[in-house]
Prior knowledge:
Blueprint: H1 5-17, E1 31-32, E2 35-36, E3 38-42, H2 48-65, E4 71-73, E5 82-86, H3 90-94, E6 106-112, E7 115-121, E8 127-131, E9 137-141
Parallel strand pairs: 3-4, 3-5, 5-7
Antiparallel strand pairs: 1-2, 6-7, 8-9
Amino acid sequence: xxxxxxxxxxxxxxxxxxxxxxxxxxxxxxxxxxxxxxxxxxxxxxxxxxxxxxxxxxxxxxxxxxxxxxxxxxxxxxxxxxxxxxxxxxxxxxxxxxxxxxxxxxxxxxxxxxxxxxxxxxxxxxxxxxxxxxxxxxxxxxxxxxxxxxxxx
Length: 153
């Protein structure tokens, strides 16, 4: 089940702007003065859902700000940047979070210093084999969905 994009962004905005201890507000700049202040981080081999979500987050930030926030793999995260962690990765594991921690269809929108976390456990989808005209074989979600591609750039 996918959440509508507007709902996801309202939820993210609420989480980022929610008061923290002693009434202070969390600050996590994603874009400042038309330049990215954050990176979107996925695993080096993200799930179809995480790859799709990373592209969706990137596109919505671009639509809102006019700025494209880069997507990077968890093996190449600049330590000085704010991060949006999408799906399970080395970065979420370092924070003690794995997809196995969640029940099916359970999700987390979390805040840590310099970090926005978007992850959870989707309902497993059966993979279907696709043979293309050029002979290439790929596997993607079944039930009429299309396979997502992700090259990490």
